[in-house]
């Protein structure tokens, strides 16, 4: 499951390893913002007064983009086919030649060309001369050109199967989607996910349940829901089995997972092949003395909704007891509100040593990500990877979201998920239930992916998505 859901706004997770790229992008955007602001003021847009739909809004949204499927709703916009052709042409011939071929020769208007690159035409430019769209187009072209272009030689299912068969060092990126078939809640889904259970906790934002500051203040909030995300049985999905199969075939370079359920281990994926980008329940650490235990040492407490105490702390307190602990003042009130109890300035209060809380080693908001991620990706995997397979994640959350952009552009990238993403260009999109997709890929590769959730006689129907050469939908026949 994804631990850190940030569908909108700033990502709270630190990504030290991508700072260089981030700075570049920020500088570029700043320059673009200035350029666009000039255009806006020239055409009389009052940027201070703009609402959410305008290109210059107060919440920092500089340019609004639209998805490919919105093109058909915009009068005068490129068709999807035209848009794809323009994008390909740009990557093929470069920026200067592309501008020469289009704007200079007046084969298309700047306004229309903006839509080819997903720019939502700002209202303040309505009725303006075509030149007014030039700065916007410049931004759009730069943005498109800096994207990793799709590799045109990889499109079909056969291509995907061949890549699998020939690859020697595969990076697999995984998210919540590979565990949902096991009934593990997806944090990101608002209604069916875990967040819907959190309303009664009185949190202003459900993400607070994974906020380290709130955990330190009152760990009971986290432990009241922790049992719902605790891995229970030793089960795993066919997709986890697929990752193990890649390992068995000597093809798995690294599985970077956003999931904290540690289910990969159940499937037999070795710890040295895994980077758990958001930590996991595999171990737990005392917040006071840093004493570490295997995760299952605190599972009983978690299942009962109790706050697990550190046994090392308990022991050291016990040895202090004879001289250290004085008789406690009798209290008429209960001590349920720990904070109030601690804040009391009453001088009659005794110092009562309390054991530290055992915190599962999952990464909370406000905590640094495990170092291993960037170290391994940049200093080891980047040179070796010859195929990337992204499974069951919308790739919106750092640091995993950064991986495709950090790898050399000639490394093929395959995407397996229920819904396509538009912010990254994959070479082949295999859409559907990931368990179904990987089992069909294995069938076609002649690999034996045995799993009780895959019926022996399963037949899978694959249909192309209209308008895309490289997008395919997988469905079990009769399902
Ligand atoms: Zn401790």
What does this molecule look like?
- 34% of the residues lie in helices and 11% in strands.
- The chain has helices spanning 19-42, 80-93, 95-104, 110-116, 134-146, 157-166, 212-217, 220-229, 238-248, 263-267, 299-303, 311-324, 338-343, 372-384, 403-406, 434-445, and strands spanning 170-174, 252-257, 274-276, 279-286, 292-294, 358-362, 387-391, 413-417, 428-431, 460-464, 471-476.
- The strands form two sheets. The chain has an eight-stranded mixed beta sheet with strand order 3-2-1-7-8-9-11-10, sandwiched between helices. The protein has a three-stranded antiparallel beta sheet with strand order 5-4-6, with no helix packed on it.
- The chain has 479 residues and is α/β, with parallel strands linked by helices.
- The longest helix is centred in the first third of the chain and has 24 residues, at 19-42.
- Strand 7 (387-391), helix 15 and strand 8 (413-417) form a beta-alpha-beta unit.
- The two termini are 25 Å apart.
- Residues 1-34, 39-61 and 328-348 have low confidence and may be disordered.
- It contains 16 helices and eleven strands.
- Zinc ion (ZN) binds next to helix 12.
Strand numbers in spatial order across the main sheet: 3-2-1-7-8-9-11-10
The rounded Rg comes to: 27 Å
Count of distinct strands? 11
| Average predicted confidence as pLDDT | 80
Q: What's the N-to-C terminus distance?
A: 25 Å
Alpha-beta classification: alpha/beta
As a percent range, the share of helical residues equals 25-40%
The profile of the biggest β sheet is: 8 strands, mixed
What fraction strand?
A: 5-15%
Low-confidence runs of at least 5 consecutive residues: 1-34, 39-61, 328-348
DSSP helix count?
16
Bound molecules: zinc ion
Global geometry: globular
Binding site for Zn(2+): 286, 289, 310, 313
GO molecular function, one term: NAD+ binding
Active site: 278 (proton acceptor)
Keywords: Metal-binding, NAD, Transferase, Zinc
């Amino acid at each position: 499951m994804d631990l850190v859901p940030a569908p909108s706004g700033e990502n709270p997770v630190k990504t030290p390893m991508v700072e260089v790229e981030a700075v570049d992008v920020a500088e570029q955007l700043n320059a673009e913002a200035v350029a666009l602001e000039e255009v806006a003021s020239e055409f009389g847009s009052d940027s201070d007064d703009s609402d959410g739909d305008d290109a210059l809004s107060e919440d920092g949204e500089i340019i609004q983009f639209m998805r490919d499927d919105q093109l058909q709703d915009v009068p005068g916009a490129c068709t999807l086919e035209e848009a794809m052709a323009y994008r390909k042409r740009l990557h093929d011939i470069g920026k200067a030649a592309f501008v020469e071929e289009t704007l200079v020769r007046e084969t298309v208007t700047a306004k229309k060309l903006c839509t080819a690159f997903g720019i939502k035409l700002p209202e303040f430019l309505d009725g303006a001369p075509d030149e007014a769209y030039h700065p916007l187009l410049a931004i759009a072209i730069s943005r498109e050109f800096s994207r990793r272009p799709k590799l045109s030689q990889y499109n079909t299912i056969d291509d995907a199967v061949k890549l699998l068969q020939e690859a020697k060092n595969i990076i697999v990126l995984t998210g919540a989607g590979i565990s949902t078939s096991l009934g593990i809640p997806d944090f990101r889904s608002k209604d069916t996910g875990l967040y819907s259970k959190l309303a009664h906790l009185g949190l202003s934002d459900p993400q607070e349940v994974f906020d380290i500051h709130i955990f330190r203040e009152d760990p009971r909030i986290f432990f009241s829901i922790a049992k719902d995300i605790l891995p229970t049985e030793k089960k795993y999905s066919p997709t986890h089995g697929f990752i193990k199969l890649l390992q068995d075939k000597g093809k798995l370079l690294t599985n970077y997972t956003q999931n904290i359920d540690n289910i990969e281990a159940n499937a037999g994926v070795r710890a040295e092949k895994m980077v758990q980008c958001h930590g996991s329940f595999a171990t737990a650490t005392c917040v006071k003395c840093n004493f570490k235990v295997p995760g299952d040492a605190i599972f009983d407490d978690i299942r009962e909704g109790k706050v697990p105490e550190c046994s090392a702390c308990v022991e050291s307190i016990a040895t202090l007891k004879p001289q250290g602990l004085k008789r406690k003042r009798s209290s008429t009130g209960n001590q349920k509100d720990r904070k109030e109890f601690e804040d009391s300035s009453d001088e009659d209060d005794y110092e009562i040593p309390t054991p530290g809380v055992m915190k599962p080693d999952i990464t909370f908001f406000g905590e640094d990500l495990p170092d291993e991620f960037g170290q391994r990706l940049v200093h080891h995997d980047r040179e070796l990877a010859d195929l990337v397979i992204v499974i069951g994640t919308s790739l919106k959350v750092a640091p995993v979201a950064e991986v495709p952009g950090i790898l050399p552009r000639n490394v093929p990238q395959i995407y397996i998920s229920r819904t396509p993403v538009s912010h990254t260009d994959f070479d082949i999109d295999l859409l559907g239930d990931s368990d179904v997709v990987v089992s069909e890929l294995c069938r076609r590769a002649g690999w034996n992916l045995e799993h009780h959730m895959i019926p022996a006689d399963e037949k899978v129907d694959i249909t192309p998505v209209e308008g895309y050469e490289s997008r395919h939908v997988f469905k079990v026949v009769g399902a």
